[in-house]
Amino acid sequence: MKYLDQYRDAGLVRGLVAEIRRTITQPWVIMEICGGQTHTIMKYGLDQLLPQEIELVHGPGCPVCVTSLEKVDKALAIASQPGVIFTSYGDMLRVPGSTGDLFSVRASGGQVRVVYSALDAVKIAQENPEQQVVFFAIGFETTAPANAMSVLQAQRLGLHNFSLLVSHVRVPPAMQAILGSAGNRVQGFLAAGHVCTVMGYWEYSPIAERYKVPIVVTGFEPADILQGILYTVRELENGTHTAQNAYPRVVAYQGNQSAQKIIHQVFEECDQNWRGIGSIPGSGWRLKPELAAYDAEPRFQVGAIAPIESPLCISGKILQGLQKPVDCPAFNIQCTPEHPLGATMVSSEGTCAAYYRYGRSK
Amino acid sequence: MGHGSGGRMSHELISKTFLAAFDNPALKVRDDAASVTIHEKDSPISTRLAISTDSHVVMPLFFPGGDIGRLAVCGTVNDICMLGAIPQYLTAGFVLEEGLDVEILRKVVASMQAAAAQANVQIIAGDTKVVQNGKADGLYINTAGIGMIPSGVNISGANAQPGDAIIVSGTLGDHGIAVLVARGELNFQAEIVSDVEPLNELVAAMLEAAHDIHVLRDPTRGGLATSLNEIAIQSQVSMLIDEKAIPVKPAVAAACEMLGFDPLYVANEGKLIAIVAQDQADSLLTAMHNHPQGRDAALIGIVTGKQEIEVRLKTAYGTTRVVDMLCGEMLPRIC
């Protein structure tokens, strides 16, 4: 704990803010990719400390928020089947599908269990050979290695009652989609430290070069975030645009190569639907064809699902940094954490939830 | 399940369902215990009583620092104390699942008696029901209690005044995290012990040291943040608390960090919040520090005004943010 506390040190934070103020001369729009970073900014009020020239916009890096409605509906359909134990990370349970959420499936008798890792789901499959155990494999590059590992483990154990409902997403294609969109305002990125822990940041140099935006790998504590902002502002003010690492205590350029190897053993690239945004080419991972036996979708035949999204929700625009929660007419009126219209209000990492929870309704 | 978390959804359920049906002045105050005045007919003498009831469901039944029996006694004793009353008698109702080991029940009952003796209360009536195997989680206990409110004591969640000091009696989140770790689902171990304690002695010492205590509240489900929001609504005031001043054990802070929980929302079973006139804050804190249950007591904030009803927190950097009630169940985050 002492170690983490150092990155919350008030003196350090004040010093970084002063340095940012000394460096900046004009307005800049910076996007933090990860929902964890958004929450740190809101929780500690870091935006209140920054000079007014900096506008922070909040990115799509909340895995729960961007999981497509279609996948959530498939999860609900599978979890409702008898003989199924449906396992998921906790914050996925409250995400609204077209007809309810996983909590409501549990309340009507479905076996929905929160697990802390995909490997816990494998254990449940071992202990319940008569039941089908499905794990909701969502998330960015961060959760992919452990989710991939669960398939390899099930294979080694010869389990036939374990499968994944896969909805993996990748950050670099999403950044390119944002930068390539007509209304883009983002001039610099704080890249997601946890994603880069796994993947490194070699993928970001070509993006920085192509779109002429600085990309700075950034951590999650207050001092980490301010350090990331400082590096980004320096680049912007100098007119340079490289991929840099402001989180070197955790992230290496090449990332965790054994983790990357496991991912590529189990998953292959595919187009992916992002909730509220739409399909982004090459932005997902699915199980390789030779591992199709571990794919829950064919196993439970939940092919054709036509989801219905709330017409009021603007989460797609929020996830692309085009609008903020306070721009939404439903925010804090029809849409609250108790009655969310979109996933950005549900997840502990969602932008709307952060605005709501920390009282940024005005 | 969110309706049982003690946060905003519980409040909605209470307002829209129970308050609407049972509407009466004692219930409407929404304190931890109800305060009622009993008169003998045609007599000028009256007695003010604090009455409360609480049902206890906890998994596992035994956890570091306590068990469901101790929890059931302390929960009701503390609710009564939060009006400044002296708890005297409890009743206990048991719902037992068919197949429950009698030895477990004996242990729970012995623990209840030990807690009752510690709190100087007697358990004077009870009830037992058995339900089929699978229809309950081993054992549920309801307790109800009664205590006398001494004359001159007027404590309620509705009494917070601008300028008052906000004090907590010790470290936050110990109970919630101890129970979570004891469930064994997290694959980590921590030496965190539940704080489940009867608080009547501490409250008596506090009342002796400061006659102008306005509010007492034990921040159980929903934690400090939810309790302060409840008080802010009852008293129609705003509050400002100081993040740096809030006591949290390093082990609890670390467990919360890993799970993505905020200790401000984690349950306590042996802690209280006291809101007191500013000029008595020092003497109250001194009295609390002299009591084992108030050793780590800390002044964490002030009641700021009556313009807005909200609880704000001042961070270590001087920025502020709203601290809302708990919404739904706390869920461990994905990464």
Plain-language structure description:
The complex is a heterodimer of chains A (362) and B (335). Chain A is of the alpha/beta class and 362 residues long. Helix content of chain A is 40%, strand content 19%. Chain A is built from 17 helices and eleven strands. In chain A, the strands form two sheets. A six-stranded mixed beta sheet of chain A has the order 4-3-5-6-11-10, sandwiched between helices. In chain A, strands 2-1-7-8-9 form a five-stranded parallel beta sheet. The mean pLDDT of chain A is 92. Chain B is of the alpha+beta class and 335 residues long. Chain B has two domains: 48-153, 60s Ribosomal Protein L30, Chain: A; 165-322, Alpha-Beta Complex (Phosphoribosyl-aminoimidazole Synthetase, Chain A, domain 2). Chain B is built from nine helices and 14 strands. Chain B has helices at 8-22, 25-28, 68-81, 102-119, 174-182, 200-209, 223-235, 250-259, 281-289, and strands spanning 34-39, 46-56, 62-63, 66-67, 86-97, 122-131, 139-148, 165-168, 213-217, 238-242, 273-276, 298-305, 311-314, 320-322. In chain B, the strands form three sheets. A seven-stranded mixed beta sheet of chain B has the order 9-11-8-12-10-13-14, with helices on both faces. In chain B, strands 1-2-7-5-6 form a five-stranded mixed beta sheet, with helices on one face. In chain B, a hairpin with a 6-residue loop joins strand 1 (34-39) and strand 2. At the A-B interface, helix 2, helix 3 and helix 4 of A face helix 1, helix 8 and strand 14 of B.
